[in-house]
Design a protein that fits this description.
The chain is of the alpha+beta class and 129 residues long. It has a single domain (10-125), classed as GTP cyclohydrolase I, C-terminal domain/NADPH-dependent 7-cyano-7-deazaguanine reductase, N-terminal domain (GTP Cyclohydrolase I, domain 2). It contains 4 helices and 4 strands, in the order E-H-E-H-H-H-E-E. The protein has helices at residues 27-31, 49-52, 61-72, 79-93, and strands at residues 10-21, 34-44, 97-107, 117-125. The chain has a 4-stranded antiparallel β-sheet with strand order 1-2-3-4, with helices on one face. The chain is elongated.
């Protein structure tokens, strides 16, 4: 029987989620819908799923997708607020996440005609207790 593999980490990603939202500080951004693209990568350090085949041993990426859709539908001033809310929810919802990489891009930002997107990206590791 072959030895069990033990990777350093297992990364689950949900990439290029397209949403519309009212996020911005300018009056025009609050009145006109903005388009966003969100990608999230979560790293887990428990690898039971490689052998169990159980959803409970991994991250249900459909939950991540659904939360992001819901969270992005709530208007706010800054993308950074969404980064914080999504990151906090991920760590609270899934106790086996060791780190998160999250990128939110505002597509075709207002008053930036020659710019495809403006983005905020964060990498957060879970605090060790």
């Amino acid at each position: 029987m072959p030895e069990k593999i033990t990777p350093e980490s297992l990364i689950i990603s949900v990439e290029d989620i397209q949403v519309q939202s009212f996020i911005g500080v300018l009056p025009e951004e609050k009145e006109k819908i903005n388009f966003f693209c969100i990608s999230v990568y979560v790293s887990i350090s428990q690898f039971d799923v490689l052998y169990s085949g159980l959803l409970s041993d991994t991250i249900d990426y459909s939950k991540i997708y659904n939360f992001i859709i819901t969270e992005m539908s709530i208007p706010c001033n800054l993308i950074e607020e969404k980064i914080k809310n999504i990151s906090e929810w991920l760590f609270e919802e899934f106790n086996n996440i060791s780190s998160i990489k999250l990128k939110i891009s505002k597509l075709n930002p207002l008053y930036m005609e020659k710019c495809n997107s403006a983005s905020i990206e964060v990498f957060i590791s879970k605090e060790k207790s």
